[in-house]
Amino acid sequence: MPLLALAYLAFIGLGLPDPLPGTLWPEVAPDYGLPNAALGLVLAGLAVGYIAAGLLAGRLIQALGIGGVLAASLAATALAAGGQALAPPWAVFVVLALLAGLGGGAVDAALNGYSASHFAPRHLNWLHACWGIGATLGPALAAGLLAAGAGWQAGYGAVALLLAPLALACLLTRRRWDGGAPPATTRVSALSALRVPAVRLQMGVFFVYTGLEAGAGQWAATVLAARGASPAEGAAAATLFWAGLAAARIGLGFVVDRIGPDRLLRLAAPVAVLAAAAFALGLADRLALVLLAAALAPVYPTLMARTPARLGAPVAVHAIGFQVAAAMAGVAALPGAMGLAADLVAPAAVPWMVLALALLLAWLIGRLPPGRT
Length: 373
Hints:
Layout: H1 3-15, H2 20-32, H3 39-85, H4 90-118, H5 121-147, H6 152-172, H7 174-177, H8 190-194, H9 197-226, H10 231-253, H11 256-259, H12 261-281, H13 285-296, H14 299-311, H15 313-344, H16 349-367
């Protein structure tokens, strides 16, 4: 199988388990006799594992190679899902969430690192659209199994069965992936990479970007409900945001190489600010959310694609993992801050925080140094 095709499948696999904790929680919580707040322990385990894997990814790739990291990490993710399908004691369930985060974070960093070095930016946009496909298929599969009368365990089990062949495929092709690591003579340490100002700048971009994306998508329905929309209308608006993100990544993949990835980022940033301003002012809420999603869509994959050219391959092998960690930290921290603002002030504060993040993102993108073409 061509590695590009396997990378597309692996990105779909990366997305499959991500929404399961929230999707299946209404069935999981009663089985364990837990309050809804206990979901936070699962999500925290995932986030800690993801961040840790991102920070360690460069060292793991240097030690095991891209193929070895992909095979081991996908196997860990499959093992975590399979273990959770057995409905173990609650403490073990949380530990398995940590293992899932470690596996997912390592897969994310390794796949992005390899793809950025070997594929054109258009493929990075399409690969990240595949993550969205996986994140859609996972809940759909779980919902279908529940509708058929299976328990919540079947959803985790099905994902484990889908991930296991991907892990085996990466194991069998591991020698073909290993061109992704820089030669030993040009290796740098993780700490040396972290000292590079451009590395820290790009980590800041990823932290702000993912917090902005997740915050806008997660709180869209609440904001619209506060403005008088029905729950169904709010949910539809949130769905439009995520659909717009995936559709824009697919569409922009056809033009990113023609426009130029750095130019595309600098064009997208002010559009995101305008869309966020319209959302904050309550001007055509749904259209503003779709436009915001479309403007944000190329940031993550395109910036990943340009990391080796901007930083050099020896630094990029660490920097891409750091970026994955920063991205997960943004998802964990910034939407939560928006929730606090919604409780302490009002839901109307959330769109203004979205606008502030869009302005900060545009400023950070404007500071990025040019990369080699």
